[in-house]
Amino acid sequence: SVRMLLLQVLIVISTWSYGYSQITLIQTPLSVTRAVTKTARMACKITGVTFNSAFIHWYRQRPGAAPERILYIESGSANMDAGFDSKRFEAEKIVSTSTCNLKVHQLTREDAATYYCDLLTVKLSATSGVLIKVFGSGTKIIVTGKLCGNYSNLLPHSDEQAGKVSYMCLIEDFYPDVIKVTWEDDNKNAEKNGVHEEIWPSDDNNSSYSMSSWLTVDKNSTKNYRCKYQHETNENGFATIESPGIYYIIKTSSIYI
Fold this sequence. Notes:
Blueprint: E1 7-13, E2 15-18, E3 21-28, E4 31-34, E5 40-47, E6 55-61, E7 68-73, E8 79-80, E9 89-94, E10 99-104, E11 113-124, E12 129-135, E13 139-143, E14 146-147, E15 151-155, E16 164-174, E17 180-185, E18 195-201, E19 209-218, E20 225-231, E21 234-242, E22 246-247, E23 249-251, E24 255-256
C-alpha cells in the first residue's frame, strides 16, 4: 500500500535544526558594491543536507517589494524564471565545497536589491514528512561607483554605573551601510549580552555612514575584549582593548570602482 505523508511547510531564516542534524546556509559577502555594467558575485555555503541532490533557489528582493525568484538549480544548468535573462544571471553548484554561486552580469540600477539563496528539502520519518524551506541571510547589491572605509576606534570604558562598565567601538566613514559588528573575549567567545549598536549617516547626502557598538560588562571582569566588523572594504577589521583602557586604531584604505 502507499503510505500517505503529511507534509508540513516550514520557512526558516539561515538555519534549521532537525533531530541531530542542522541545515545551515551561510551567504557571503554581506554586500557587493559595483558600478553599472560590472559583475556582482556572491556565494551560499550549505551544510546539513546531501548537496548533490539539493534544490537551491535564488531570490531577489528590491526595496519595498516582494521577493522574486530568479532561478533554481539541482544539477547542470539553472532553470530560469520568467523575466530573468540567463545571460545576466548565472548560477553554479560547486560540489567540492557545498557552495552555490550566483553572478549578476551587466549590472543596471534595477539590480540594486538583496539576494537570498534558499534550500528546499524533505525530511522523512516513519510516519510523516517535513518540507523544509531554509533561507540564507542575504547579500545586498549596491550599484554605484563608491566604496570606502576609514577608521575603527575602540574607546576606553565609561565610568562605573550600577556595577557595570561599557566599552564603545566607533566605526566611521564607511560605505555602503551594510556592516556586521561582533564582540569577543580573549578566548574568541562571542559576547551576546549587553551589546547595543546604532548607525547614522555621516553627512546630509548619505554618501558615508558611521556606527557605534557598545558592550556593557560587569566592572570586575578581567577579560580583554575585541570589537570585530565585517565590511566590503575590510572583512577582518578589529580593535582590541586591554583593561583598564588601552585602545588601538585600525585604518582601512578607500577604494573606488
